[in-house]
Amino acid sequence: MQPNLNKQQAELELSLIRKVMEDSRKAVYETGKQGTFWTLVMAPAILLNYFMIIFNTGIEYTGLLWLAAVLTGTAGSVVIARKEKKTIRVKTFSGKILTSIGIAAGGTNVIFAAASGFFGVFKPVYIVPIDSVVLGMAFYLVGVIQQLKSLKLFAFVWWAGAVFFFFFPSMHCLLFLAIMLVFMVFLPKIERIKSA
Amino acid sequence: MTDFNYHEIDDVIHSRIRTAIMAVLISVDEAEFTFIREKINATDGNLSVHLKKLEDNSYISVKKEFVDRKPITRYKITEIGRKAFEDYIKKLESIIKR
Amino acid sequence: MHNENITDPSGISKISQTENELLIIKKIVQDSRNAVADKGWHYIYWGVIVTIALLINYWMVISNISMNYQGMLWFISMISASLIEMIIVKRTEKDIKEKTFSGRLLSTLWGTSGVCMFMFGFIGTLSGAYNPIYIFPVLSAVLGAVYYISGTIQQISWLKYITFGWWTGSLLMFIFPGVNSIIIFAAMIVFFQIIPGLILHRKWKASILNY
After folding, report:
1. Where are the domains of chain B?
2. CA dihedral for C161, C163, C164, C169, sign (positive or negative)
3. CB contact, 8 Å: A113 with chain C?
4. What ipTM goes with this model?
5. C23 — contact with chain B (CB < 8 Å)?
6. Residue of A133, A154, A165, A173 to mutate when probing chain C, most C C-beta within 10 A
7. What is the pLDDT of residue A116?
8. What is the pTM of this model?
């Protein structure tokens, strides 16, 4: 304990505080494993669905394909969450918001899928542009939280893609969705490596 | 040496380890004991004593839980602690700008 | 902890490094302040405007006024409300010395949700993707998402629970579409937007008095 502080000691104190703060913040970058896993499950499922439609084969298995994709995604999510609970030693406010963005965007898109699939509100071909509008919002917010310009810029690609497929609906929108999802996994990683 | 009044310095924060603990906790939302220990290079015993002092002064809150039957202790900065830390930074700033 | 530049003979880098360190510390401290002093006026402002527009829209529907005029009503009211809001925000933000991470995020959330709602309201219907009557359940679903994220940012649990009200209403309006959706949506705006806005405003007032 020091009885009083002079200028140099105060400077050293500030230096210590800054270093500890920066070090702590660096250590808590979100792993993003949940999002990566879901993308790795959904992107191939979307591509498979796309080729089933293009080559007109196995259309009758579409429902089964999506059931398998959702079940695999959910099971994997639970496993990752359990593992992370054991290994992650820090909880961040940003992490909580990121989780809420995932839940909110997921819930909204499930409602839209139900509106199309069960209530026939719009043709299935419009699900992708509708989901893209919500995903644009979600990725913009994630970009702000993680300070990733690439994600913020890609939000506009989601929205541009949505506008295009609203006016020119086609099954190729599935290809757009799959490519965008793959980009979303790798882009932040590339940006982080570059900035590091 | 300056004629700075040390009575104005927050006695609870003004210790190397406690300052570092507060700096860690203000940077994250919640942190486990092991995370804090790793970040500030302190021993278990020493860290516990300083955490207790911060807890006794309501600068931090403690949450204990079991994950896979292992006890986990998480610490979080309180509003009182945040205010005290901000004041401490202001004091340091005023010394430097003197 | 060793500070490399403290012994710098010139003294110039010493000052700049310390100032730089202070800036970094202050930024982290400021960003870690999760509390958002929400006056709730955004909720009330948009709630009142949308409710009025909905009631006019309902009157237009029962009076058989063409869809083009209904579209114009929404386009003009939403654009002018956004412009007025921008002016108000610019004026009031002058008084705000520090903007927290949460505050910035909340502004971004409502801004991006505005883009979403504009796209669903105008592009979705103009392209013929869905019947204009489905705008209301679509917007309800988006508002549900916004309230969930907003509740997390503002750390207000009850705001998160309102999400389920929006989503339930959305599903009901998808299942039972019709002109009544306008009235249902107006009621939802009153209960899920204006009233929460008033509660937030009261809380903000109380916090000012306590301070």
Report:
1. 10-96
2. positive
3. no
4. 0.82
5. no
6. A133
7. 87
8. 0.81
Residue C44: its pLDDT value, please? 93
Name chain C contacts of B86, Cβ cutoff 8 Å.
29
Residue B45 has a CB neighbour count (10 Å cut-off) of: 7
Above 80 in pLDDT, residue C30?
Answer: no
Q: Which of B29, B82, B89 sits opposite C25 (nearest CB)?
A: B89
Tell me the C-alpha to C-alpha distance, in Å, between residue A177 and each of A110, A153, A157, A181, C1.
16, 16, 11, 6, 50
Q: For chains B and C, what is the number of CB pairs under 8 angstroms?
A: 18
The confidence score (pLDDT) of residue A25 equals 73
Domain B10-96 is found in CATH 2.30.30.100: no
State which amino acid sits at residue C123: I
Sheet containing B70-77, strands listed edge to edge, beginning at the edge strand earlier in sequence: A90-91, B30-32, B70-77, B60-67
Token representation of residue C160:
């998160």
Q: According to the model, what pLDDT value does residue C35 have?
A: 59
